[in-house]
Amino acid sequence: MRKVDKLGRIVIPRELRKKYGLNEGTAVEFQDSGFGVTIRAQNCFCRICNRPVTGAEALPLCNGCIMKAVMMYEKEKNG
Ligand SMILES: [Zn+2]
Predict the structure, then answer these.
(1) Is residue 3 part of a domain?
(2) Which of 12, 15, 31, 45 is most buried by its number of CB atoms within 10 A?
(3) CA of 63 to the centre of ligand 1 (A)
(4) For 45-76, how does the pLDDT look when each residue is reduced to its tens digit (9 = 90+)?
């Protein structure tokens, strides 16, 4: 359990920061689901399938979707 401090801040557990690429300076947005609050790093979810992007990728796409795009491109190119 984490406690919110008097300025409304909380510490995000290290393992979650690592998993979702929440590094220092990462812009995040808060979403009110009606049941709680979801914190999402901007550009941290694949634009196609919405899977979390680790941050290692240069594009806001997961490796799976990047591979699919590359395969489609290759198929197109080779007729
Ligand atoms: Zn994807």
Answers:
(1) no
(2) 45
(3) 7
(4) 788 898 877 655 567 788 899 999 999 999 99
Domain count, the chain: 1
Give the range of the structural domain holding residue 19, as residue numbers without chain letter.
Answer: 14-77
- Distance between CA atoms of residues 26 and 22, nearest Å: 6
Distance 49 CA to ligand 1 centre (A): 4
CA of 9 to the centre of ligand 1 (A): 31
Q: What percent of the chain has pLDDT over 90?
A: 37
Q: Is 45 contained in some domain?
A: yes
Rounded-to-integer distance, Cα 22 and Cα 45, Å: 12
In the prediction, which pLDDT does 58 show?
Answer: 66
**What is the rounded CA–CA span in Å between residue 40 and residue 48?**
16
Q: Would 67 be classed as within a structural domain?
A: yes
Cα 16 to middle of ligand 1, angstroms = 19
Ligand 1 centre to CA of 5 (Å) is 36
- pTM recorded for the entire structure: 0.48
